[in-house]
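INFO  loader      accepted 1 record
INFO  loader      residues=465
INFO  predictor   begin
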Amino acid sequence: MNDQFAHDMPKDAATPVVESHRAMRENLPFSDRRDFADAARGFMGTRAGVRILSDKGRVVWSLEPYDFIGEEEAPPTVNPSLWRQSRLNMYHGLFEVTPGVYQVRGFDAANMTLVEGDTGVIVVDCLTTVECARAAMDLYFEHRGRRPVVAVLFTHTHGDHWGGARGVLTAGEDDDVPVIAPHMFMEHTVSENIIAGPAMRRRATYQFGPLLEIGPRGQVDIGLGKAIAQIVGPLIRPTDLIMATGDTRVIDGVEFQFQMAPNSEAPAEMHFFVPRYRVLNLAENCCHTFHNLLPFRGADVRDALLWSKYLGEALQMWGGKAVAMCGQHNWPVWGDRVDTMIAEQRDLYKFVHDQTLRMINHGLTASEIAEFDPSAGQPRKRLAHARLLRPCPTQCESHLPEIHRLVRCEPGQSRPAAARGVRKEIRGIHGRRRRDPRQGARRFRKGRISFHRAGVEPSRIRRAG
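INFO  predictor   done
INFO  writer      dumping tokens
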């Protein structure tokens, strides 16, 4: 190998990385196995390896390269939390959410949800490619019997939820089948995927790592699923738009109650509840992960405050009514975990928004806020899911990207000199090098935490009031 490329070759984990991973294993509740039970619940059948080919023989999707993911203990090169998520995302096939509602998982990064009506089936999201969607439908028909598709729902504008529509609907045969989507679906889909499409596809290689070799020293998982399928299928224009929260549709005898959630995970997005089956679907706004708020690929920035409000509104509308909640990524939850998970995700996004603004108003820079550790302060007692905000190797640029929108700091921007000064001054909040929080609290109350030398205004932080 040429020496100039040697630095790009996979390497073993450095000692600080190994130590960081060890600390994470000790501090997080890896003994909690409820997610594994939920991920396996309702399994009906699958395809070994889920190897899906195009008409020309090209591999569109396959889980075969991920056979190395099996052992419970994470290898030294993989963050233990990411390793756990990667194992959970290996559960694939057709699953029963409740009798009458089914999901195909692991045939794409996204899920396909199938709701049975009086005479046919309503398909919610069609995956990324025609081939993946067709394979998912074939698996469903194999276990539930062949029945007509009576409607298609697109929950939001991202291509992994509508690109496979022609694998569900056949042109010329299913043109009268209603396609339902949220208001402004076409405008935002065209904006993100066509007008800015070439640039976004290039940047997506940085966000999702498809050019990395799959393995414990390369690409392992993307949190929402294993990877992104390589071909996006054609877009079908919706025939019916959901305009407002509270809108309802009766599709093949099944009532759907809708909630609008624009400018959350996607610029046009919606949730729905199916009273017949008591199933709640929150699209991509309540998954088993903490979403990027500033996607590197160039998708619209997400509004964390609005996001939290939509989840709070969903609790007000349907709290206590749903026996199951499924999203369009990851696995469902049932029973008491439904309301608990919605509340925790609501608090998670609200926490990030509120604390980011609080620290900006105190004079901290983007880099300082990104390094914030919630385990060192009071909020951890309030936020049950504060573990999702733990420091990790990518936290600065990925886990708290709200800061980049608020202070106009681009991802990858080198730390300014002022930020280094702020870091030195901020030690006072934690009690200087001894990190005694009582000392920091006293200095804060007396207004002695000075940021003037760091070149940040205001020159002194004082107690409110």
